[in-house]
Amino acid sequence: MNVRSLSLAKSSVSKPVKHTAQSAVAAIKEIVPRIAARARETEQMRRVHPDTIRELHEAGLMRLMQPARFGGSELWLDDLMNVVFEIGKVCASTAWVYSNLASHAWNIGQFDLQAQEDVWSKDPDALAATGLAFPCGKATPVEGGFQLSGRWPFCSGINACSWMLVGAMTEQEGGTPQRRFFLVHEKDFVVHDNWNTYGLTGTGSHDIEVKGAFVPTHRSVSAEIFAAAQHLPGAKLYDNPLFAMPTFAAFAYVLCATPVAAAKGAVEQITNQLRQRAGTYTGARLAEMNSVQVRIAEASACVEFAETVIRRDWQALEACAKARDYPSMETKLSWKRNAAFATQLAVRAVDALMPASGAGGLSAEGPLQRQFRDIHAASSHIALTWDIHGAAYGQSALGLPSPAGFLL
After folding, report:
1. Per the count of CB atoms within 10 A, which of 113, 119, 213, 402 is most buried?
2. Residues in a beta bridge with 169
3. Beta strand 175-185 with 190-192: parallel, antiparallel or unpaired?
4. 3-state class (DSSP) for residue 41
């Protein structure tokens, strides 16, 4: 079943909105109260609310990292993440989708100019979701491009998108299959409505399927080139070093900002609630209980440590890109380690808050139980899984080779 017709929200913007770092944050703060009001409905709909997608388009926030050539603001990762943090405090599903889709405009900007024109010449507001599980797709070289087939899971935000960026194994005559990315138009894929989860439910991360579609050469890039970023077509096309920033090093931050922001929102909300709340059975002020005080301290410390480290790291990544100084393998492994550990701290924070909130925290009307589920769900993403990235860093630190197939 193709579900895109149920929720695709097209923009009515006639003139692009160009943002600065400051104006982007001001714009999202205007929208956040409405995103918060829609958070429960977003979860029930299993996709980001169409009104939210429309408002993000109209505010120019979906095009924050899009090349200026196509009307985008061409801002950096730090600027995007500041917007994500505002959204993530009130709705993790919306933050997750926004962070992915807005950053994909930067990824498309790393492709050949003809690919960018394919996506944006007729619709400069066009969005792309991703399916990056390479073994799920198979590409065969044909004259002028590739024939692509496969089925990819976890395509977050697909209901709002007219393009997909997928990874596939490409057959090489007499050689090992090569990992490549492909930009695929909506006419060539079908969306399967199968996203039914306990957390990040509103992300609409359905499967998409492609059957024998032709993808021209200009809409394909080697995954290794994409990861290293040194020879990307977009890096040669644009003077802005943004488009030479390593993709996979940044990917972890695009994702981990959401659980950290959600945990930050939970700490702020519960702290404010507990200042005046009395225990149901004892009548004593919960704020005066030592156990509650310690849990608030633990949760807030986890969030502050997590946010401080990931901000430091993604700003270091940006500094490397601006200096055209490509980070070492060891540095990128440490960044991925820190993103995964920051996510673990977000989990620890919300786990500490749940007992302090009492039975009231379980209410479907309140945000805490949703934040609890969303943060735990985010921590299961392969880019944020501590067991994977902790082990990869440890292997490198101990002089062992990185796991096979690890893209950095």
Report:
1. 119
2. 138, 179
3. unpaired
4. helix
SS3 345: helix
User: Which tens digit of pLDDT belongs to each residue from 51-69?
Assistant: 999 999 999 999 999 999 9
pLDDT digits (tens, 9 = 90+) for 195-240: 999 999 999 999 999 999 999 999 999 998 988 888 899 999 999 9
Non-local (6+) Cβ contacts of 165 within 8 A are: 104, 107, 108, 128, 129, 130, 131, 132, 181, 182, 183, 184
Domains of the chain: 4-120 (1.10.540.10), 128-222 (2.40.110.10), 246-397 (1.20.140.10)
- Beta-sheet pairing, 163-172 with 220-222: unpaired
Q: How far apart are CA 405 and CA 408, in angstroms?
A: 10
Q: Which tokens is 202 given?
A: 């509103």
| Range 236-261 burial, b when 16+ CB lie within 10 A, else e | ebbebbbbbbbbbbbbbbbbbbbbbb
DSSP 188: G
* 8 A C-beta contact, residue 228 and residue 185: no
The first and second tokens of residue 53, run together, are 């997608």
